[in-house]
Structures
1.
Amino acid sequence: MSDRYLRTGIFLAPFHALDENPTLALERDMELLQHLDRLNYHEAWIGEHHSGGFEIIASPEMFIAAAAERTRHIRLGTGVVSLPYHNPFMLASRMTQLDHMTRGRAMFGVGPGALVHDAAKIGIKASEQRDRMNEALDVIVELMAGKSVTRKTDWFDLTAAQLQLPSYSQPGMEMAVACARSPVGAVASGRHGIGMLSIGGTSDDALKAHANNWKIYTDHARQAGKTADRSKWRIVTFAHVAETREKAREDVTFGLERYTRYFTDVATFPILPPGITDPVDFLTREGIACIGTPDDCIRHFERLWQGSDGGFGAVLLLANNWADWPATLRSYELMARFVHPHFQRTANALRQTSYDIATSNRGTYSAQSQAAVEGEIAKYAAKSKRAAE
């Protein structure tokens, strides 16, 4: 990917502290998408969770339908729908409707389900989730290609199932599979030639795992006769920026401790090992997060690019509410203004070239301008003199 254009967006679980008004928290999530739409972020992926208290969007499709009415440009994906929780025919039908309602701005992200206690509440064992995801995904891909599907498993039974609407998006609705350290997501997405969402951190070890999963993706894509397209690969990371590093560190004291406690107490994997006394130092030192200035963020994204071993299509920020609302909005704005252009074909390069040409020739141009003005003054004086005579 020598012609580097890195799309930008967020991965919105969302994460909200237990003492906040949940209705207002959901409204703030909606306002965040409107803010990002105005700032020209390309994508927002909205999660599905049903327990644990922090991640409070249960239906990303419902949220996307509302967000599509409040935004103009940003694309909106399920990030992700947990396939084992849904009948694949009904889910494919709902997502096709959403494709039409959003006029093609919706994207279909899928996964096995991140919270084991979600699955347990409906009688699904953790050991079953990934097999069920693959069974459902195989059916959904066929259905969304307009095919009729008859298939029976131990958890769904389809008889000549066929969608009644074609995709609005052409040639079809964009899809992606979540992929952490396990190769399951890479195999599934590669086999179908759809996108891959790399989650699970951006430490050096995590980046190596992501790059290895992309190799697994390309191998399985090739075996299935699909083309591996790096623009379909998205990497999720953390970033909060401010005008100074000191301000950024101060900002995240608002919510970082509650966030990391949730990952230790409830979520599948903690983001801090035991005994860490300075979480900001650990997260930044290990490359898990950028907490600093826009220049620091440029270096952080550049590291992700290099760690991908060939480039990828989009960087997604895991929305986290580490900072209060005004500082959070400011962070996204600073990144849009000063970080994104660096990774979008160096968007300001032609402006800089134009500026440099103008400044390097200023003496010549100024002399020409001054001579032209003096010439006009002389001509006017001569004309006035002749009129007076």
2.
Amino acid sequence: MNPWMLFFIWPVIKFLIAITIVLTIVAAMTWVERRTLGFMQARLGPNRVGPAGLFQIIADPIKLMLKEDILPASAEKVAYFLGPMIPLLPAFVVFCLIPYGPPPAFAVTRVNVGLLLIMALTSTAVYGIILGGWASNNKYSLMGGLRSAAQMVSYEVPFGLSVVGVLMLCGSFDLVKIVQYQERHVWNLLPQLVGAFIFFVSMNAESNRVPFDLPEAESELVAGYHTEYSGMKFAFFMLAEYASMLVNSCLMATLYLGGWTFSIAGYGLTTAALSKLGLLGGLIGAAIFFAKVMALMLVYVWFRATFPRFRFDQLMDLGWKWMIPLALGNIFVTGILVLAMPNLKIDAGIYPYGELLMAVVGAAIIALTLFLVTRGPRRPAAAARPTEPPKVIHASRVSEA
């Protein structure tokens, strides 16, 4: 095949197809989220534009494009315009690194350090938030940007540490090899239950979603870092947020839920079985992958409908006192079990009893952690009953004053 076709034209075509699907999902999620929130909170969602408010997907972009675009007089103009762009660009670039189905047709670009490159790109989104908050020359926006910086630093560390256990099991940064490892063994969700829990909590914090939406905090900071933004610049911030949610859901499905496969120990819909079906198998694998991704996206909506916002001290405590020690402990236990308990071979069968033990230990650790986090502070012991009844002082009536 022509090298231009192999290394440039086909990747560009696949990326354009993927980004079109991504934009469609992002637009659809605005409607899905508002309708689902309305259902969960016993109220009406969008229901005026089109059947069941479905045309709200079209009405919202038109409204934002026609809305007056205000530029604060004292804003740093260059940084003000760059702020919404910086979170958006890396969020879209990483979609060319995520495999959506059996390779090579459904992998836009395959690199041996794909996971490392994705995490490096997505971690730059915080700069746009900080820049937008500072360039607006608004103290509320600046507070939102500073909160975002503290939050991102706090949860970027457990976010990265949580995937180390997966890398120790699979032995590769290549997302395709990570999926192929899971189809031969078991989904990493079981042996890396603690890592998956930390990754799931951290990806909510990375996306600034409830209950981790402290950088916005409408009830406290007006709207946080995007207070002074309107029109399409405001829409870019929201688009970056939904794109970040989609990226994190794709990573969760790839790292812990088997990606495009639906198999355990080599039985089921493996990559080889899907490849034998040709294009139909590729479409089935892509459908499996997007079903897992959309299920995780709905969990984002469910969290927004049910959980209250953390206080900022609770947010910091959760990240530094619980998530990071848990992630380090998960790496330590995983390393011991991988070295001390390799796969047991009996006749023609391979039994990964080390992974089974990791699943049991992980479930026990998560149960203990949730118990300690949710039990609340201990109440002091009840004071001894006084020997004399307390003296009651009655307020005098107005007529007696």
3.
Amino acid sequence: MYMDRETICIFGSKFAIFWKRVDAILRKIYTSIDIGSYSIKFVVLEYFNQKVYVLASHSVDSKGIKKGLIIEPNLVSECIREGMKEINEMLGIEIKRVIVNVPDYNVRFTEVEGHIDISQSEVITASDINRVIKDSIYNRLDDDYELVTMIPREYRIDNEKGIRKPIGKKGQKLEINGIMISTPKKNIYSVLRVIENAGLEVVDITIAGLDNYYEVHDKGLDKKDGAIIHLGHETTTVSIFDEGIIVGNETLQIGGVNVEKDLAYVFGIQVSDGRILKEKFASSHKRFCQINEIYEVKNTIGDVIKLNQLEVSEVVMSRMVEILSLAKKQIRSLTNHEINYIILTGGLTEIKSFKNLAYEIFGKDVIIYTVTTLGIRDNKYISALGMIKYFIDKMESRGKNVSMLDASEETALVTPNNKLKKDNVIINKIFGNFVANKEEK
């Protein structure tokens, strides 16, 4: 068939418009903020064709945070503004909406059930999913607790059990069984306030244990019981999973900073120098160090001292054994089930010879997870990546098509040299818009 130039142009234009519409449907942009004691991490991902692609990542040193809790809100908001400014400059647009984690101290995991009748059409919709989730959590929260999320274990349609994705199926009665995650209101509100003060709107909240699983898991783990140990700067988090569902969590008040303080105390140096020793020189296991390796550092009175790798590693190993042993003991106190896997994550896993020490304490079946996402490849971003992946899974399972950018912002993101003006961000009040409608997204 012959087409003249004008016809080709018209056809090509319509084809381009069609694909632009398809692209808009398939492409989604998500931003997360992981608020940690040592640093605050920012990640922007694009979700396209069932895969995630890193658009931007950045971290800033934390201020105003102690052991994961916000102590000085103004300093935390300042750090978030600083980090988001860098992210916005990388992308050429202004990010306004984010997912954020909240402290998991005193978090509760409650098994809940709910049921609803299906409308006359008998076809289950996203609206029905929201209704049955609401029914499962109705009147289940204590006055001083707030909902984080509800994770479905299974849906039941009439007499059929074990359904994971009920949308589009037919039935007269829909039931749900799952785990409701809740945490003290002060844990949530403290985070929401600093995010709001930074000029951002919170789209969803999570906890670190949930985030970590969604970054490290695969389909094989979804059918097993196991544990994830996140070795952080000031704390160590132990999370228990039952066939992919988080059912227990505990935060231990010990982490990488204790190693740094030990080195500072033993050798009479600054804690900042202890951090450098830990990260650049020490070995987690003294058996795998070089006695002839020497590191020169000034002590607190200004004298230069020479430290060999063996004496430094002995100090580091002593504390590392304590941290890993406490975490192992915590697993036993959180569950009586047989543990099929243990995954170790976090910054301490990157110290030299960590694998050898981990094998000695947990056995050689232990998994040491390393981020391999193209564009990041840094373990400190595990939670920031995981919270986005959890949000994507959550929205898809509930039949929601959500992106954190509107059409004009997405156009600006993919159009070279077309940066949006930085208008003042006008955000809805979080406490009315977010908490009250938490499970309606």
